[in-house]
Specification:
Blueprint (H helix, E strand, L loop, with lengths): L1 E4 L4 E8 L2 E7 L9 E5 L2 H5 L23 E4 L3 E7 L9 E4 L25 E7 L4 E7 L10 E7 L14 E8 L7 H9 L36 E2 L12 H5 L4 E4 L4 E8 L6 E5 L4 E6 L2 E8 L1 E4 L4 E7 L6 E8 L14 E8 L20 E4 L5 H7 L3 E4 L10 H4 L11 E11 L7 E4 L2 E3 L19 E2 L11 E9 L4 E7 L10 E5 L4 E7 L2 E2 L6 E3 L4 E3 L6 E3 L19 E2 L1 E4 L4 E7 L4 E7 L2 H6 L2 E6 L21 H6 L2 H8 L9
Parallel strand pairs: 5-10, 11-14, 13-21, 18-22, 22-23, 24-29, 26-28, 27-28, 28-40
Antiparallel strand pairs: 1-2, 2-3, 3-4, 6-8, 7-9, 9-10, 11-12, 14-19, 15-18, 15-20, 16-17, 16-19, 20-21, 24-25, 29-38, 30-37, 30-39, 31-36, 31-38, 32-33, 34-35, 39-40
Keywords: Copper, Metal-binding, Oxidoreductase
InterPro entries: Cu-oxidase-like_N (IPR011707), Cu-oxidase_2nd (IPR001117), Cu-oxidase_C (IPR011706), Cu-oxidase_fam (IPR045087), Cu_oxidase_CS (IPR033138), Cu_oxidase_Cu_BS (IPR002355), Cupredoxin (IPR008972)
Family: Belongs to the multicopper oxidase family.
């Protein structure tokens, strides 16, 4: 909501009045106290305004664009992106979400894992091979900055001759980036509020009124952190509430133009930091054809759930009466803290047939009925649960989807040839605390902390017991364990990971978990124990035996070891790089460890990751990993040994324990 004159290096606040967009322009005839005059914006100026939701807010941008510039390349092309950090205070990195980074793990873009952060005033050049093809994206991976502007689409087009023949040919592709947006707070503030357990006061610190939690269909917490404002679609949103400001009601909606009988592929990406959305096109179906850049056997659906970091490709057929139709982006908050039903928040975009004028439609969303049922994709709740809410709908989890017939021939599911060819890991993404400390995000009861040097550049740090820990080496851990959590996996082995979400308490959310540098097949989805009367999750899955501290887990039935789990799909499972781990349930994923490196695996709810819900998978021995270039940037701690020699250790520690300081051992 600011117009910038880049020649004069000056900005002018923008506002709406009587349907016209004005800017506050300083009058050249003003006195010492200054005076301002209203100036209507030119059409060119309007094109460069980030209206967003009509509020004024400090935000980030890439090349003055929000969302950031779309990068489109061909499969297996070499990509070079030069990043200049012109921010005043913040370091930054860019993660190329979904890229394998084979033989270039130091170009993954995860701060202090693959590289040093790019400091203000510095430049860094990313160079890597674009693979795999499909709908991907990029975003900042240092601190909490992604939602506020540092993200964009990264599209990798398949090489000629690899086009799909099992789907209709589309007339055009369009991007659909959707995210949560909070206009009165920045992401760093939100993350710190969660870290210090201040979210219950964050509606208004002056009154100390608690923020009310909202719940999803099975009684689990919504992943949408308070406060919630409108969702953005391609950086735009509009309020229809009568108590909103003129700016909020006047800013433009995102509009997608189609022509009668055309076919449009929507490349949908959930780029925000929190929250799950339910997307639908009024009076139009979607043909679901892909997820996370990978092909799916086509499925006609009416609704699509999407979580942070996930991408989906759908084809919309413009085969209805020419007009204007709502595209709905709805939250999954369906109950208040007393489990009373509430109306979810809904944001809008416009599907516009170019044969008619633009107007606000009166279209209706589809009502699921016995004679006209619905198909709802990417549900992570139990069918028993969902039948209580929408009995006339078919709910599909990711594990219910299927890869095309040819896909398993080109990229087959990893099947072990012997017991020695198989390794299995249980990873519990949960909230862990102690008698004195409220639960905070963790993996296997370990709260992730960045190392002092990037692992990929200085791999020998994994041998430092004062820095790195895991479930077999807890040297530095007490009741509350915070360290650089690294799990070592042997290379070139079939690796099965059981992703869990259990903390022994009745409340908590599901978690969207993303694995860097790899894709995986989704073999099975399982919910927790469901109350068949209410549909609520009332206990953990009975398939898993947890330790008392939830730091380790195993199959309750030992015959399930070595990949012998009943109900897994090894014929045509879908491929993903992000998966939603259901509250008190589990997901089984499998891949072959053929990409040596240090790969971050984390919850993609930004505050959860920043506070500690992450783990690094070390694939292969250090000797097997490719070495970064000799001139690769380095960073580390600086410790003056003379300080220890000239001062007694007791005096030094007493200095560090002064208010506002920490003791490091």
């Amino acid at each position: 909501m600011v117009a910038y004159n880049w020649t004069l290096f000056q900005g002018f606040p923008v506002y709406f009045k009587n349907g016209t967009m004005y800017k506050n322009n300083e009058s050249p005839f003003g006195n010492q106290r200054h005076s301002f005059e209203e100036t209507p914006l030119s059409e060119k100026e309007k094109e460069n305004i980030h209206t967003v939701d009509g509020n004024y807010k400090f935000m980030y941008a890439i090349n003055n664009q929000f969302p950031g510039p779309t990068v489109v390349v061909y499969e297996n092309q070499t990509v070079k992106v030069r990043v200049y950090n012109n921010l005043a205070n913040e370091a930054v990195t860019l993660h190329w979400h979904g890229m394998f980074q084979s033989k270039t793990p130091w170009m993954d873009g995860s701060s202090m894992i693959s590289q040093c952060p790019i400091l203000p005033g510095q430049m860094f050049t990313y160079k890597f091979i674009a693979n795999p093809p499909g709908t991907h994206w990029y975003h900042s991976h240092h601190g909490a900055m992604r939602r506020e502007g540092l993200h964009g689409a990264f599209i990798v087009i398949p090489r000629q001759g690899k086009e799909r023949t099992d789907i209709p040919k589309v007339d055009k592709d369009v991007l659909f980036l959707t995210q949560d947006w909070v206009f009165n707070k920045n992401d760093a503030q939100t993350a710190e509020e969660q870290n210090w357990f201040l979210l219950q006061f964050s509606d208004n610190f002056d009154t100390a009124e608690c923020t009310t939690s909202r719940f999803t269909y099975d009684g689990s917490l919504s992943t949408l952190l308070r406060l919630y404002n409108n969702a953005l679609i391609n950086g735009k949103s509009k309020s229809f509430a009568s108590d909103s400001s003129v700016n909020q009601r006047s800013v433009p909606l995102e509009m997608f133009n189609v022509t009668l009988n055309s076919k449009t592929r929507f490349q949908i990406m959930k780029t925000g930091s929190t929250g799950e959305y339910k997307i639908s096109f009024d009076e139009h179906k979607m043909l679901l054809i892909g997820t996370d850049g990978y092909d799916l056997s086509p499925i006609w659906i009416d609704y699509l759930f999407i979580n942070p970091a996930e991408t989906y490709d759908v084809i919309v057929f413009a085969n209805n009466t020419p007009g204007n139709y709502w595209i709905r982006v709805q939250t999954n908050e369906v109950m208040d803290q007393n489990h009373n039903r509430v109306d979810p928040n809904v944001s809008f975009a416009l599907l516009h047939y170019q044969e008619v004028e633009v107007y606000y439609p009166d279209s209706k969303r589809k009502e699921c009925a016995e004679f006209d049922s619905c198909v709802i994709a990417n549900s992570h709740w139990s069918p028993i649960t969902m039948s209580k809410w929408e009995p006339c709908a078919q709910y599909l989890s990711v594990a219910d989807m299927r890869a095309p017939a040819d896909d398993n021939r080109v990229s087959p599911i990893a099947v072990p040839e012997s017991l020695e060819d198989f390794q299995e890991v249980f990873l519990n993404f949960h909230f862990n605390g102690s008698a004195l400390l409220f639960g905070r995000p963790a993996v296997n009861a370990i709260h992730f902390k960045n190392p002092p040097v990037p692992l990929q550049d200085s791999p020998e740090i994994v041998n430092e017991r004062n820095v790195v820990c895991n479930n077999t080496d807890m040297y530095q851990c007490g009741e509350f364990c915070r360290c650089t959590h690294v799990i070592k996996l042997a290379s070139k082995k079939v690796t099965q990971i059981v992703l869990l979400n259990e903390n022994g308490i009745s409340g908590g959310p599901s978690h969207p978990v993303h694995l860097h540098g790899n894709h995986f097949h989704v073999l099975k989805y399982a919910s927790g124990e469901i109350n068949k009367t209410t549909g609520f999750t009332q206990g953990p899955t009975q398939d898993i035996q947890f330790s008392s501290d939830f730091r380790s887990a195993q199959w309750r039935n030992s015959s399930w070891n070595f990949g012998n789990v009943p109900g897994i799909n090894i014929e045509n499972p879908p491929k993903n790089d992000t998966i939603m781990v259901p509250f008190r349930g589990y997901v089984i994923i499998r891949f072959r460890t053929d990409n040596p490196g240090f790969w971050l695996m984390h919850c993609h709810l930004e505050a959860h990751m920043d506070i500690g819900m992450a783990v690094v998978l070390q694939v292969g021995e250090i000797s097997e990993q490719p070495k970064p270039p000799k001139d690769f940037p380095k960073c580390s701690n600086f410790k003056r040994e003379s300080l220890y020699k000239s001062e007694s250790k007791e005096h030094f520690n007493s200095f560090l324990q002064l208010p506002g300081r920490q003791t490091f051992i």
